[in-house]
């Protein structure tokens, strides 16, 4: 029996220079074997980390017409995947898109891309951060980092001052926003290791995925992680396995970047590591 190719709707911004958001999600999901449809939330000349004077075009007015046209075509998606949103109004628009295309057969992953290192990104406001909980409530799985988790829960950012008990309490509180599964990135209990923590509300199991830490900070790794996590899940790996693949592939991308001496503000050289991803996914 012929198996239908799965289709993903990726709802992110486009940074014309600097590998992140759609310029990461589209090639990774495509390499993982999926027909990837895109809905841009904004267009920027570069991403916002490490660059100044970037241009920014808000595409809020385009989201509903695109969604309506997709609906008129009777499109069905195996996964809905949202990331960086360009305005407060987009939260309700993406929520409407979820309501339109969600079904019992598909998966919705929300990466609440809005903050890092204890601070919101430049175009985000506390109101937008609070509003993001609306999308998290509609998701099957959410993938915040520690900073985003703090803003979603309206709690202080703890930095590196946490233990396993704190992380597991955080995962449970995040799941109470409405998603069945939660993955929190940027978790470390050992300075030499970095990874992610997961929680499944149906099994009530906590899991962890780690790999050796590469020192320094690299832009776009969160988008690589989220896109890879979704790729694993859609290729029928479980949550723990998919998270480990995402941790390992993200590290592999960073290693390629260091090896090539790539200027880090342009993002990591994920393209060079795609063969590794395809092998890990068994494709």
Task: Explain how this protein is built.
40% of the residues lie in helices and 21% in strands. The protein has 283 residues and is α/β, with parallel strands linked by helices. The strands form two sheets. The chain has a nine-stranded mixed sheet with strand order 3-2-1-4-5-8-9-10-11, with helices on both faces. The protein has a two-stranded antiparallel sheet with strand order 6-7. The model has no long low-confidence stretch (mean pLDDT 95).
> What is the distance, rounded to the nearest whole angstrom, between the alpha carbons of the first and last residues?
18 Å
- The helicity comes to 25-40%
> Please, how many domains?
1
Derived structural class:
alpha/beta
User: How can the largest sheet be summarized?
Assistant: 9 strands, mixed
InterPro entries: PM/HMP-P_kinase-1, PyrdxlKinase, Ribokinase-like
EC number: 2.7.1.35
Domain Pyridoxamine kinase/Phosphomethylpyrimidine kinase: 75-263
Pfam families: Phos_pyr_kin
Write the layout of secondary structure elements.
Elements: E1 7-15, H1 22-31, E2 35-44, E3 56-58, H2 60-72, E4 79-82, H3 89-101, E5 107-110, E6 115-116, E7 119-120, H4 126-138, E8 141-142, H5 146-153, H6 164-175, E9 181-187, E10 193-200, E11 205-212, H7 221-234, H8 239-260, H9 274-280
Parallel strand pairs: 1-2, 1-4, 4-5, 5-8, 8-9
Antiparallel strand pairs: 2-3, 6-7, 9-10, 10-11
Helix pairs in contact: 1-7, 2-3, 3-4, 4-5, 7-8
Keywords: ATP-binding, Kinase, Nucleotide-binding, Transferase
Pfam families: Phos_pyr_kin
InterPro entries: PM/HMP-P_kinase-1, PyrdxlKinase, Ribokinase-like
């Amino acid at each position: 029996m012929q198996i239908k190719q799965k289709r993903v709707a990726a709802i992110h911004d486009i940074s014309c220079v600097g590998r992140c958001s759609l310029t990461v999600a589209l090639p990774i999901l495509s390499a993982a074997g999926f027909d990837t449809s895109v809905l841009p939330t904004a267009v920027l000349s570069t991403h916002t980390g490490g660059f100044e004077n970037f241009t920014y075009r808000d595409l809020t007015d385009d989201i509903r017409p695109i969604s309506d046209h997709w609906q008129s075509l009777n499109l069905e998606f195996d996964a809905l995947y949202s990331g960086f949103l360009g305005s407060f109004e987009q939260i309700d628009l993406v929520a409407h898109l979820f309501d339109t295309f969600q079904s019992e057969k598909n998966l919705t992953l929300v990466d609440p891309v809005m903050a890092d290192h204890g601070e919101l990104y430049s175009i985000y406001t506390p109101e937008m951060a609070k509003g993001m909980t609306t999308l998290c409530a509609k998701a099957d799985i959410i993938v915040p980092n520690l900073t985003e988790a703090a803003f979603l829960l309206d709690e202080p950012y703890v930095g590196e001052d946490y233990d396993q008990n704190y992380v597991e309490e955080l995962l449970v509180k995040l799941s109470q926003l409405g998603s069945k599964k939660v993955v929190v990135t940027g978790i470390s209990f050992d300075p030499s290791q970095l990874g992610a923590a997961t929680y499944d509300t149906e099994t009530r199991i906590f899991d962890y995925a780690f790999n050796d830490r590469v020192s320094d900070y690299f832009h776009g790794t969160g988008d690589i992680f989220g896109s890879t996590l979704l790729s694993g899940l859609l290729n029928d790996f479980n949550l723990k396995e998919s998270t480990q693949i995402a941790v390992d592939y993200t590290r592999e991308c960073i290693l390629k970047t260091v090896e090539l001496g790539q200027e880090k503000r342009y993002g990591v050289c994920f393209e060079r590591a795609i063969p590794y991803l395809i092998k890990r996914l068994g494709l």
